[in-house]
Automatic annotation (TrEMBL):
InterPro entries registered for this protein in UniProt: 2Fe-2S_ferredoxin-like_sf, 2Fe-2S_ferredoxin-type, 2Fe2S_fd_BS, Benzoxazolinone_Detox_Enz, Beta-grasp_dom_sf
Ranges of residues in domain 2Fe-2S ferredoxin-type: 1-87
Domain of life: Bacteria
Family matches, as PANTHER family: PROTEIN YIIM
The species this protein was found in: Endozoicomonas lisbonensis
Official protein name in the record: Ferredoxin
Amino acid sequence: MANIIKIMEGFSFIPRSELNLLEALESQKVDVEYQCREGFCGSCQVQLVEGEVEYTSDPIAFVPEGRILPCCCHAKSDLTIEIPGGCHFKKPE
Ligand code: FES
């Protein structure tokens, strides 16, 4: 069954299963910070409020308790996350 990703500010969506969490957020035009996209830098981290994620590769970056790296994990259950600085959407180019 597909999991639901909910962002604290109230936006929710069902991600495509082949996408990691960062790609899933990007597919919804959610503005998330990132650099390496491989678990090295830690810049993509978000707060995991509720739910469980599964890492596709072990993150190298230090991840504080309660935080996750969306670039190298996907949802294992319904998730509620909080994006530092709030949930913003990319403007159309
Ligand atoms: S973008 Fe570098 S750890 Fe996720």
